[in-house]
Amino acid sequence: MERNVSRPQSGTLIGRTAELRALDDLLSQARSGGQAATLIGEAGIGKSSLLTAVAELAARDGFMVLSAVGVESELDLPYAGLHRLLFRFADQLGRLPAPQRQALAAVFGVESDDAPPPFLVALGALTLLSLATGREPVLICLDDVQWLDRPTQDVLAFIARRVGAEPVVVLGTLRRGYASSFVQACNRQIEVRGLDDPASRELLRRHAPDLGQAEQERILSQSLGNPLAIVELPAAWRAAAPTVAATAGEPVPLSARLEAAFAGRLSDVHQAARDALLIAATDNQTDLVEILAASTVLHGQPVGVEHIEPVAQLGLVSLDRHGLTFRHPLIRSAVLQAETLHRRQAAHRALADVLDTDPYRRTWHRGEATIGPDDALADELEYAHTIALRRGAALAAIASLERAASLTTDSSQRGRRLLLAAEHAFGLGRADMVDRLLTAAGRNMLSELQRARMEWLREIFNDGIPGDAARVTELCGVSTESRLAGDTDLALNLLLGAALRCWWADTGPDARQRVVTALRELTVTPADARYVAALAVAEPVVECAAVDDILDRVVLESVTDANDLRLYGMAAHAIGDPVRAVAFLDRAAARFREQGRLGLLSHVLTMSASGRLQLGDWKSARLALAESQQIARLTGQPIWDTGTLSLTAMESALRGDPSAHDTATEAEQLASGRRLTNLLSCVQLAHGFAYASERHYAEAYSALRRVFDPADPVRHERESFSGIMIFAEAGAHTGRHADARAIVDDLDLLAKTCPSPLLHNQLLYARAVLAEDEDAEDLFRLALSSDLVRWPWTKARLQLAYGSWLRRQRRPAESRAPLRDAGATFEGIGATSWARQAQNELRAAGERPAQTGLEPAEELLSPQELQIALMVADGLTNRQIGERLYLSPRTVGSHLYRIFPKLGISLRGQLAARIRPS
Predict the structure, then answer these.
(1) Per-residue H/E/C for 787-828
(2) The domain spanning residue 140 has which CATH number?
(3) What is the pTM of this model?
């Protein structure tokens, strides 16, 4: 019979297309011969759900469905499972041969018989199935085979080996780590693995749409695609105290159902093994020698490998001569949750006793084993947090400080330690953790400086209300108080927060100047990265020359601190120097990745993407924007999230993507609610660029004219620099030369005091395009003679405009070279619409443009797929890619599975040639 192979997808199961298709195939083949199969996987992986789904499919197809579920408490009851499976046919026993009838009658309790022969029971069961079902196909569903009694398993194994001639499908589920005679008899085993990343996210979204992004990510990382964990963890998470959910090293809170699923067999293990499991779960290392040594201390007697091997056989841990690891992160959580606080503290003490050569970890475990104030230990923990930071373990550092605070008797000291922990949490992008730590710190006796530090921490993470001039003045006042109290660092940090408010929205010239004045009152070197960044974002145009002079004296290679690199990059970005900005920001991104500081990584990626759009590196810009938006949402930073969306609209518009207007409108709605002038300006630029890409020049001019109008709410003076070229082009095409020239003339005056490379290079184009014919050629030649090596987008735009002008002057032969060069550059950077314009101009000049080859990879792949493909082309492994992009190696492999057919390749080694053709 013909079957609709897509129908299994119609159920409620997410991400199980392949498994359902395989099971549907078993049903398809049943009428021509029976089969037996086993679904094998870990606890909670979805085996029972698949069994239920295939039972529903079979029932709709006219199958008789028989089912039995293994019950752990009935393991010692012979034939209890067989009784549940076949008792409905007890009235058919009379049709069996006498020996078989008597054996099954004893099993069903119909007749008394002492220990019926197992062979007769099995043969009777097979015969009964054959007689009772007749020509109707049968599906036998066996859930949790490992908990069916052994005699029943033997009978089912007997049946499984002999269904080949019957229209019978026998399908069982078995938890990994259990042996069964039934599995050995099956001719097929189907491995049920965890859901891939997209399916896991969809399942979590359906069951817990209210969870914050950080909580979602932690649940996803702990569940490893296990559907039961994804469904159950959110409720357990909500019921847990915030400190448990957010503190490094604590077990993930489990529901009773999850705890039973992942550690239900702990009661079966010897006490020595249970002690070893507790030590392994308490430890943050997998070293077997260390675990056995601490287990011996906890147990009071020697504990060896022989005590742990039975636990490995149960499938709870993996064991080799070097280490012990849990088979699933939630097994570790279940082991810890199943123990008392007293036992967990004893495990920490045992570990501290054996860690003589690792003072940091010894101090940490001592802290976890202690209840009540202990100032000496608190001091040790605060010192230990610096060791964790040097090791790149920021979460462990935060946990050390928080634990130190809980052991501290002095309220002011306790608050200081919590504020320091909050600073580190900001670097990780953990808004939830920052808010919790600041709230806890606020309950303590804080000095005025500490209160000011709290103000700064709230400012840098929550973005405040951009455009609030009163708040800018208030922050400047607090900064002055901090300076007078001797805390220049805090004063500078507060002024950077105030400056950022001026950048995001118009606070007016008085507030901006107030920031600049307060900055110049500080006794800091101008080369301080925070100083130059605050000066640049507060007054990017007025102070452009001063910022440019400071950056000229900064040697890129000498800057090693990731945050300094970010701030120098921010300053360069603010004044419109994308070449220098990208150089600083790329180095910053590499260091933030190494340190796992996602909150700041999002800022770096967004600013570098903006610079790359100006320079013509659109492929890299697109990748950076996709990653940045994901991180901004993960870390709860709405302004940076909206910022990446507005830049994505600009990138789409420049490429000629029809979706650009929709993306821009979405960003506009988000930015309007918070009066984000900077982002509204980017949105308006995106609309203008999109119209120009479509050659709707009247609409483009109207859209872009607004960003140069001081009275318009979308006006942001520095962002307007990005629109000068296309504004001038639209003015030339629509005959509005005079109006456009007036604006360009004003910008020319500004350029005399503002050395912004972005402003100056865009003006090169605008002057030539808007010039009268008698002046145009000299201006084009002057512009093209400028150093535009790092500005291919600007140079190609000039070449296109110059070539078009030459053709209109009836000089087609001269026009072809610049048009040819422009077209090649546009093709290379993905400027599809502009490349078509260059080709059209070449045709009009009498030349047929060369045909392009394969469709560019960036047009075929999503941004994340393209990013992964580029990394594979660079020779990185799935694990290395996962570490850089914060994905599991399995998720990377899943992306590659989809990438290969899109690019028309089949081997990993073919990617480099396809992505970067010579």
Answers:
(1) CCCCCHHHHHHHHHHHHHHHHHCCCHHHHHHHHHHHHHHHHH
(2) 3.40.50.300
(3) 0.64
